[in-house]
Amino acid sequence: MNIQIIAFDADDTLWHNEPYFDEAQDRFCELFQNYASKQELLSLILNHQVKNLPIYGFGIKAFTLSMMEAALQLTNHQLNGKTMELIIQIGKDLLLKPVELLPEVEEVLTALKGKYKLIVATKGDLKDQHRKLHDSGLGHYFHHIEVMSDKTEMDYEKMLKRLDIQPQDFLMIGNSLKSDVLPVLNLGGHAVHIPYHTTWEYEKIDFEIQHTNFKAVEHINEILNLLV
Amino acid sequence: MNIQIIAFDADDTLWHNEPYFDEAQDRFCELFQNYASKQELLSLILNHQVKNLPIYGFGIKAFTLSMMEAALQLTNHQLNGKTMELIIQIGKDLLLKPVELLPEVEEVLTALKGKYKLIVATKGDLKDQHRKLHDSGLGHYFHHIEVMSDKTEMDYEKMLKRLDIQPQDFLMIGNSLKSDVLPVLNLGGHAVHIPYHTTWEYEKIDFEIQHTNFKAVEHINEILNLLV
């Protein structure tokens, strides 16, 4: 391995994220608990999110708009203004959540800084991800942040071109096999998977990955052993 | 001038945009014409947009959410579900608009390609701006697109660092004096202003710019004379 650039996924790799979304969805489910089961409500939101991905992309604003649509469908448009405002507020609260670092992230970045060009490569809302990187206090470890509209092979291909780097010199580290690992391996890059205790339904895959350029670890500090 | 990178603003510089927003706002005003004058309705939307900028940033999803808030305020939350859906649809229609190039954009890009590194530097929704660049058919002229969370001096500073270029070797071309010209001049870069026939209220400034690194032109093809 002759890695030159290491890209870290952000949400649930550097800092906690999915539990905030779960909490937000719980609030939505509470508002509509008389309409359907929690499982049905979560499916409904997901359906609208996936349907809207091609135009909205990822992130909290898209999530908010999809919750609104789910609520309108669920109530057969008998939604009152106060409830709509509460849905908007669920989204705004997500955008104002504190950034809580995952354990040992800072120690690992300290050890890697100067030895590699470190970047953040994430999906989500542009403004929100910039805000979180700022609030995390991790900004000075990274050369820059790449907010990607998606994490398909094509998106990584564009990013690698922009970074002017060959795939074999690039390492992606993240918690999503689907978004952080598979497309990078397919391009000839390296990838490390660090699982997070909960995964968004949309990011789940149901097969195992075996590849010479792939490593799975349990904790972020194990990547130091891989890179030495 | 020893320009190495030329960055083009996208909306209302490469392709039409503001008229689509005007049309969207007209549709909103029609929905609520019994509540307030058009001028009052437009102000109300703008107020919510500006208030939400720090968390939502720019773009159509933010615009949609701000229209929804404006409608809730206007009706004192007596908003029915069908109208809410229409507001969401106004936003979605904007995200599906065809991309109409401005005159002579393609000729100018053809003349500059190969002589400079050309990029797109724009605000707005990440997904939407990537979509528009793709649909415009202009993608192959540009090294890449930078979707910026805002266009302040700090945002340009970060971008120039990422591009690994000195400000004096950088030229920004766009229709907004506030976003495309002033911050770039303040950093020591070059800027060319090409006015568009209509400007979003938020982008207006009320003074004239005189600066050795600044040129104002009427049409995009005039930049070829400046660069030869």
Automatic annotation (TrEMBL), chains A, B:
InterPro entries: HAD-like_sf (IPR036412), HAD_sf (IPR023214), PGP-like_dom2 (IPR023198), S-2-haloacid_dehalogenase (IPR051540)
Name of a matching Pfam family: Hydrolase
Keywords: Hydrolase
MF term (GO), any: hydrolase activity
Record-given protein name: Hydrolase, haloacid dehalogenase family protein
Source organism of this protein record: Flavobacterium indicum (strain DSM 17447 / CIP 109464 / GPTSA100-9)
